[in-house]
Structures are given as structure tokens and as C-alpha cells.
Amino acid sequence: MAPRVLITGITGQDGSYLADYLLSLGYEVHGIARRVALEDPERHFTRILHLVDRIQIHSGSLESYPSIFSIISRNQFDECYHLAAQSFVAESFQDGFSTMNININGTHYVLAALKELQPECRMYFAGSSEMFGKVHETPQRETTPFHPRSPYGISKVAGFELTRNYREAFGMFCLSGILFNHEGPRRGFEFVTRKITSTVARIKLGLANELRLGNLEAKRDWGHAADYVRAMHLMLQQPEPDDYVIATGETHSVREFCESAFAIAGLDYRDHVKIDKFFYRPAETDLLVGDASKARRVLGWQPTYSFSDLVTEMVQSDIAALEPNRRNEKSERLSAGGNNG
Predict the structure, then answer these.
(1) Given CA atoms 134, 137, 142, 143 in this order, what sign does their dihedral have?
(2) Buried b (16+ CB within 10 A) or exposed e, 261-271
């Protein structure tokens, strides 16, 4: 019998890559999505449309314990990957209350329901490098103290501590992956990497001329989400639960990402990037770079994508996605011109 898995946040970047990966391993994949998403799948299921007929989606909300309890009470799961969260850091400054409610209570609801109904189910919690915030050491590892600099980072520290407490207090197999920034063509447009690559594509195709960004000197450890979901799975296959940092160990600035992305399209970022103070964070996390030596040693995990591979795939994917639209627009303009002639 195929192992059965539950993924919260299955419609997001990580959830979709993880679902792809687990299906390839023979898992029976279940996911949770809001009812509004189920009512409009063409809009909300864009990342999982290619596999929606191979997975089972349950209507539920992380803001409702009865909702989570009901789903888990009606299905037996071997593994649970809790990925769902309000994960956009800038938004967490604008609406800290919603971020705290969804990220902290949602994690608590999943842990509590599993403890009550399926304590043998192994659970993964999606931690974040934003928990390190104002870093106490570089690179950051599992023992580095947390000093979050955003409501999002604070909510993730709370989720990490809740997960550890359930492991230590109740003997559950639950753990956290402290994942550094991981991107890909399925990244949301609000995140700086996808904002860059999608705007590069628009500029390349003549649909835009400038890109407005905040702090170009902020540095991050960027990897590919497809690599990082493999690490999530490996963590839950270990004999004992433990927490792991997942990172490439390389750091690049937003400026470097821009330079690389524009160059792939044959452009110079200096001709198009404009600094806008609006996009600066109230409290910036300037340098995040991870030490994943424990994951390499214990899990046998290592990334397969280089920084250049990642940026190239994202830019080429965004250009390919826009080209049909540009051809259609050009055709419509020519047609309109012909009709008026």
C-alpha cells in the first residue's frame, strides 16, 4: 500500500514541487486548500493543474482547528508536511496580526490534531532563515541563536518552538527544516527574485521599461525549491527526528541577482533598475547564508542547481510564458490597424 501524505500549502511553490516529487516516489498525495481556491481552480491551482487529477484536495482552513481536525480524523496519514503560511515578509509588516494568526495558530492546530488523532504520523514544519534575522554568526547553522527582524520571522520562531515542544513533551516525530531562500519558476510574483525575472521578461519583450526595487545590497543564500523539497522528504525518513538547516552556503546580493537576470536577456540592469525607498523594510536582514553541513553529513543531501542555473531557468521560463501574449497583442494591434485602414 502506498504511503499517504498530507501537504498543507500544496498550491504554493514548495507544495507543488513536493507533490511532484512524492508522486514520483509512489506516494498517495493529499493536500489542503481553501474553499475559494476549490471554486476557482484555474486561478488558484496554477502550480498544480498538471497533477490535480493525481492528488486529493480537501477543503480546509488553517485558521480553523475544527477544519484541520476534521480532515485528519477522516484520513490516515503516514507523513504530514506543514508548508502553508503567510510567507511574504513585507506583507507581515503591513498585517502582523494575520501573519501571527495563520502562522502560529495554524501550526499549533496541525500539531494538536495529529497528537490527538494520529500521533505516529511524522510531521515536517517549514522553518525559515528569517528566524535568524539580525544574525549572531555567519554562516548560520542549527545552533545559531534566533533574532528575527520581522513579524514573519517571529511567527516562524514560534512555530519552530511549538514543533520542538511537541517532539520533546509528547514524543512525536516532528521536526523543522530551517530553509534558506529557495526560488524557481513557480515563485510568487511578489517575491523579489520573481519580481526581477518577470520584469526582465517584460522589458525584453517591450512590455515594460523599468524595475523598481529597494535595498540592492541585501544578501541572501538562494537555492532551487526543487532541491529543497528533496531535503524535506529525507528528514522524515531518518530514524530519529531532528532539525536541519538547508542552504547552498553561497551568498549573493539583490544587485548580483539583477545583474545576472538582465544579462541572460542581453540587457544591462543599470539601464532599467530604479531604487525606490518604498520597498525598503522597516528592519532589514542584510546577510543570510547557511551552513548545511549537518544535512550533507546526516541526510546525504546537497543542491544540484547552481545560482546561475536558478536565475537562467527563472528568466527563460518567464520569457517563454510571456511570448505568446506578446504575439497575440501584436496580432490584435495589426488587425485593428487593418480594420481602420
Answers:
(1) negative
(2) bbebbeeebee
Grid cell in block for residue 324: 505568446
CA dist 67 and 341 (Å) reads 60
Three-class SS state of 55? coil
CB atoms within 10 A of CB 83: 24
124 catalytic per annotation: no
Euclidean distance between the first and the last CA atom of the chain, given in angstroms as a whole number: 67
- How many Å apart are CA 223 and CA 305, to the nearest integer? 7
Q: Which residue among the candidates 152, 228, 244, 269 is catalytic per the annotation?
A: 152
Enumerate domains of the chain plus CATH numbers: 4-187+223-246 (3.40.50.720), 192-217+251-288+305-329 (3.90.25.10)
Bridge pairing between strands 182-183 and 223-224: parallel
Share of the chain above pLDDT 90, in %: 79
Catalytic hit among 92, 109, 130, 183: 130
Q: Which of 61, 92, 128, 129 is catalytic?
A: 128
Alpha carbon distance 178, 201 (integer Å): 31
Beta-sheet pairing, 174-179 with 244-246:
parallel
- Residue 339 confidence class, pLDDT cut points 50, 70, 90: very low
Q: Determine whether 130 is an active site residue.
A: yes
The values of phi and psi at residue 211, to 5°, are -130, 120
Q: Considering the entire predicted model, what is its pTM?
A: 0.90
pLDDT-derived band at 192, boundaries 50, 70, 90 = very high
Report how far residue 108's alpha carbon sits from residue 119's, in angstroms, rounded to the nearest whole number. 14
At 152-182, the pLDDT tens digits run: 999 999 999 999 999 999 999 999 999 999 9
Q: pLDDT for 208-225, tens place per residue?
A: 999 999 989 989 999 999
Report CA Rg, the chain.
21
Instruction: Specify the pairing of strand 219-220 against strand 252-253.
Output: antiparallel
168 is catalytic: no
